[in-house]
Amino acid sequence: MEILAKRNEAGSFHLTMGYVSFDMSESAIQALQKVISERLGQSSEKDKLITEKKIQAYRQVANKLVQADNRIVQKFAVLLSAEQLITLARLAQDESLYNKIMMNLSKQNKAQFEDDYRAMKGITEKQALINMEQIIPIIKQVAKEVKSLG
């Protein structure tokens, strides 16, 4: 939705949001800005719990991939971006998924992944969640394909 804000001749602000428009004084705009800033700055306890739950679930997925068929790892490793692959490797409990990924990459891809892994030190929880939400469907599709091939 597009939001337009203009100051009119009287000094108040005219806001238009979609089909709704209204006038607000400067003090009302400042109060609104303060409320929005506070809300954006706070993440509720519920949000933190949800994020932690998702991270734990994705850690379990990463740890289970250590036991996955090498053909599955080979296929999804080339489909994922470097950031996604690194996120997946870092979510695992130890270096075992990293080692499995390295084992299933070509020499050229292995060297590139190793460089990227060293260069990319930190991933925010938010970015990890975004990456994993994109990774899971790819892994499911690859696993399905490998399973159908026998």
Keywords:
single chain, mainly alpha, 2 domains, three-stranded antiparallel sheet, elongated
Poorly predicted segments = none
Q: Could you name the CATH class of the largest domain?
A: Mainly Alpha
Could you estimate the helical fraction of the residues in percent?
55-70%
Structural class: mainly alpha
Q: Whole-Å distance between the termini?
A: 49 Å
- Report the average pLDDT across residues: 91
Strand content: 5-15%
Main β-sheet, spatial strand arrangement: 1-2-3
Radius of gyration: 23 Å
Q: Write down the CATH topology of the largest domain.
A: Annexin V, domain 1
CATH architecture level-2 label of the largest domain: Orthogonal Bundle
Mind explaining what this structure looks like?
69% of the residues lie in helices and 10% in strands. The protein has a 3-stranded antiparallel beta sheet with strand order 1-2-3. A hairpin with a 2-residue loop joins strand 2 and strand 3 (20-24). Helix 2 (45-65) packs parallel to helix 7. The chain has 2 domains: 3-43, no CATH class; 45-149, Annexin V, domain 1 (Orthogonal Bundle), CATH 1.10.220. 15% of the residues are buried. It is mainly α and 150 residues long. The protein is built from 7 helices and 3 strands; from the N terminus they run βββααααααα. It has helices at 26-41, 45-65, 70-79, 82-91, 96-103, 107-119, 125-149; strands spanning 3-7, 13-17, 20-24.
